[in-house]
Specification:
Elements lengths: L1 H34 L6 H32 L6 H12 L14 H31 L12
InterPro entries: K_chnl_dom
Keywords: Membrane, Transmembrane, Transmembrane helix
Pfam family, one: Ion_trans_2
Length: 148
């Protein structure tokens, strides 16, 4: 059980680093565009919003596949497709229960669920801020976008 908890903790930290990198990359790529979008048409702002959403979906897919790789490497699931499916429903805290892990690994899947909740929350907070700047900001300057 300790090996599984250790491995799950390593995966948790790895996905946090991946997500942090995604936040930094997306922020750096989008901050200048956002700073000048306040007078743009709604379709342009929608396009920028979609850029951020797609970027975060890609980050989540990478994180899910990292967990899936660990489950497959541990021999817990029969195929990578099955491991990816299990990881996705666990990460998203859907948990259908049609595929389960052994007793030794089920605590790791609970940690993955916590991981997914945290990273979806982080994504939501970031997208909320982007939406605020793109759709609800009245000022021409966004001082917080010029940092970092």
């Amino acid at each position: 059980m300790l090996v599984q908890i250790f491995m799950a903790t390593v995966l948790l930290l790895a996905t946090i680093l991946i997500h942090g990198a995604a936040v930094m990359i997306l922020f750096r790529m989008g901050r200048n565009v956002i700073a000048h979008m306040h007078r743009s048409r709604a379709y342009a702002r929608l396009g920028i919003s979609c850029f951020f959403v797609v970027g975060f979906v890609l980050a989540h897919v990478i994180e899910i596949m990292l967990w899936a790789t660990a489950y497959r490497f541990a021999g817990e699931l029969q195929s990578f497709e099955e491991a990816t499916y299990f990881s996705a429903i666990t990460y998203a805290t859907i948990g259908y229960g049609d595929i389960t892990l052994s007793r030794e690994w089920r605590l790791a899947s609970a940690i993955e669920g916590v991981n997914g909740i945290l990273l979806f929350g982080w994504t939501t907070a970031f997208l909320f801020k982007v939406s605020e700047l793109l759709w609800f900001s009245k000022s021409a300057q966004h001082p917080d976008l010029h940092q970092g």
